[in-house]
Amino acid sequence: MLNHDLAAACGGRFLLRIEDIDPARSRPEFEEAIYRDLAWLGLDWEKPVRRQSEHFAFYDDALEKLKDMGLIYPGFLSRGEVKARVVAHEAAGGIWPRDPDGAPLYPTQERALDREQALAMIAAGRQHAWRLDMDKARALAPVLLEWTEQGEGPDQEAGTVAARPEQWGDVILSRPDAPVSYHLAVVLDDAAQGVTDVVRGQDLFHATSVHRLLQSLLGLPAPVYHHHGLVPGPDGRKLSKSNGDTGLAAYRDRGVSPAGIRALLAGYGFILH
Fold it and tell me: In Å, what is the CA distance from 16 to each residue of 13, 58, 126, 179, 273?
């Protein structure tokens, strides 16, 4: 709704994108529910809708470009193996670095893995994910990497924000169950669709650092970002389907009107026209 209102206020285009890169979590009924909920709110968007699952070849071209630049490598460690390393390291009194979401950073030893050995492991069927070598990538990007923020972060006001992608370590750009990561797909889609303003929740504020790095490496334009607060659940955390939190359909079924939803959001401090 904030995105829609901003587009209307400046005479811009309001775009809806279906981010369905994870086939295990993306189902037709979920997509239909999105259309139904947004239409009920009175929102109208440009057609046709861009569906990420229809553009895997487009994303793969960018992945190959990063491979040619020597910026990505195959990581073979499973989540369980990484967790075991972290537990052992911390049990010995060490401190394992973590990303802004609190997840441990991926070990970096595989950056130096011999290319022929890595290709042999892949040919032998070893599961792997393609990861960005953060040190090499950061060295190629401008020393001063930043973005324009017109909303606010969890601890940051509007203005120019210094990007710190190194906080995320060697992020995944492609894995067996999802040919492209959210980070890579979203920056490519934004550029392909001519997006000038990105409106999204504060839970993605710090991830913008990774997006600015990828935009710089791939020669893509940088949108202006508007991060907003989140509607909390009863426990104070952001709403989540996995926690069974109430969705828009439940409010609609209880007789709440779209105007009622706007009033609810206004109560949380959102500015809606």
Answer: 10, 19, 37, 21, 19
Strand runs (DSSP E) across 102-257, as ranges? 129-132, 146-149, 159-162, 172-174, 197-201, 224-228
Residue 159 has pLDDT above 70, yes or no: yes
Distance, CA of 144 to CA of 222 (rounded, Å): 14
The CA-based angle 234-266-36, given to 5 degrees, is 80
Among 162, 232, 241, CA closest to 201:
232
Instruction: Provide the β-strand partners of residue 148.
Output: 160
CA neighbours closer than 13 Å in the CB half-sphere of residue 238: 9
Alpha helices in the chain (DSSP H): 2-9, 28-40, 56-68, 79-91, 115-123, 134-140, 182-192, 208-218, 248-253, 258-267
22-26, 206-210, 227-231: the lowest-pLDDT one? 22-26
Strands 17-18 and 50-51: parallel
The number of CA neighbours under 13 Å toward the Cβ of 127 is 8
Nearest to 147, CA basis, from 208, 204, 86: 208
